[in-house]
Amino acid sequence: MKNDILFRSEVELGKFLGSADIISEAYRAISQTKSTYKVHDTTRPKIKVLAFKCPPDYDTKTPFLEKELDLVSSTKPHLLNFITTKVNSSFSLNKAAVCLFQNLSDNVKELENKTIDTPLIITGSDWGGYLAILYTLHLHHAIDVKESNDSKTIKRPICITFGSPLVGDKNLQGAIAERPQWKYSFLNVVANKDSVASFYSSNTTYKPFGTFLFCNESGGHAAFDVQESILLVLDAIKSPNANAGNLQIYDYNNVLSLMRRKILYRGDSELGELDMSLLRAGITLQLKDVGVLGDISNEQVMEIEKQSKLIRRRKNPYEPTKKLNEMKISLTYMEWYMKKKKLENGYYDGYKNSRTKDEIKSQSEILKNKRKLSKYWKDIVEEKDKMPQKEGAKLRKRWLYGGTNFRRIVEPLEIGEYYKDGKTNYIENREDHYKLLEKWSDEDKKDSGTSDEKRNKAASLTEDSCFWAYVEEALISLRNLENEGSSNIETALEKFEDYAMSAIKNYSVSPEIFIKGSSFMKWWEKYKTYKGNAYASEFARYMNNVGYKSYM
């Protein structure tokens, strides 16, 4: 790679930010806002800018920062408790930010209704940036809740702030990082002479999130999204004499104009060390471009490089729809295999009892797709389960439908492997992602009023993905009963009869369970022998009269 194209940019702001023009438009909207907030049109069709301004009494109150340095814990009730997750179950916010947002509380719902379906840039400068950030978090949460009950995809907001101080602690940072659709939507533009933006730095408990675009009076600018590098630059630009009494609000008009004119060109002579890695060279050029390279040691640059590499290894572009479509291809392959096996000796038993070379070869392909699907759905369920109840307890309908199909197609194979290895009590050892997918599916049916819908023909996929586990346990119970006898075992088998009969009457099992030689039919033949011809339960009559011949 030539050095003239060596520039490390970490700005990931989505499709709205194709150029820096929108940054200037956002700042212009702030200057045109006379009240606490206002929605502005932009030069781009359909995109709006929601600009926030700090109320004048906060701007002029000298002791403001001195009194509001405290962080407020999320354990105390306020409007932003929805941010917590299982991993980051509490967090702390700047007290001033909480107070500002609480003062806006009467207008938040009305503002949400006006803006939730609009492609939106949310902006604010200095303390107004606090309002922009917290409203963006609120709107993300509202979109999550709306999408969980609706298949419609809503455009996510982008938050651009100018000189906004850090707003919360590492747990807030972590809770936002857990949500891929939130974490990439924050950009804070910070000038190197802005004393407000750098008021909180590495010597406090405050932590940054999102991307920081640092700039200086010559138009130099660079973007960082690694926490260590952001804090180092904030330390470097922080005025040693800054205190709550002498902070000045910075005007970004001139620096934004210069920044847009700056040509981002890098030549060989700028690198200094010819043997440094491309990543480190890029970091060095960024620091040089914002005028802070002389304040940061080589060891600190190397630490930034190390953290950047770790983040890049962990980072995957969050394209949930694309990924879901990829998983559909794997699921389609599984469905093809399932239909093929149904015509032979049944999906479940055909997989569990593979014998021939062709069967084993086909099974290896199935295992590959099964592993891919299982990893995807484990990750999806784990991510959703971390979220608060309203936004995470249910997958959006499109994902929930895919998750239900996955569970009904893949879990029977999981069960087959489990019992083939000689294990017992699958239900007690069932993996969490299957449990949660089933739980969320049941809740969705209940909420939509479809749980009591009656079928009039047999399901192509057995609805209870644990059906074959119950069959296997019934086979084990029958063997135990023949060997030792027990009224408890007899009762358990009668319960299984009732369960199977109910599923048959509701058409919720696939006809493949009745294939000759299937695990279910093997159980029935042995159970019939044990009970004798005189046994006449509803299930026994149905099976003895071969009612299943017309089951379809």
Automatic annotation (TrEMBL):
Annotated GO biological process: defense response; lipid metabolic process
Domain EDS1 EP: 334-539
Record keyword Disulfide bond present: no
Domain of life: Eukaryota
Record's GO cellular component terms: cytoplasm; nucleus
Keywords: Cytoplasm, Hydrolase, Nucleus, Plant defense
Cellular compartment(s): Cytoplasm; Nucleus
Span of domain Fungal lipase-type: 86-199
Molecular-function annotations in GO: carboxylic ester hydrolase activity
Principal place of residence: cytoplasm
Pfam family, any one: Lipase_3
PANTHER family: FUNGAL LIPASE-LIKE DOMAIN-CONTAINING PROTEIN (PTHR46898:SF3), SENESCENCE-ASSOCIATED CARBOXYLESTERASE 101 (PTHR46898)
Name assigned to this protein: Uncharacterized protein
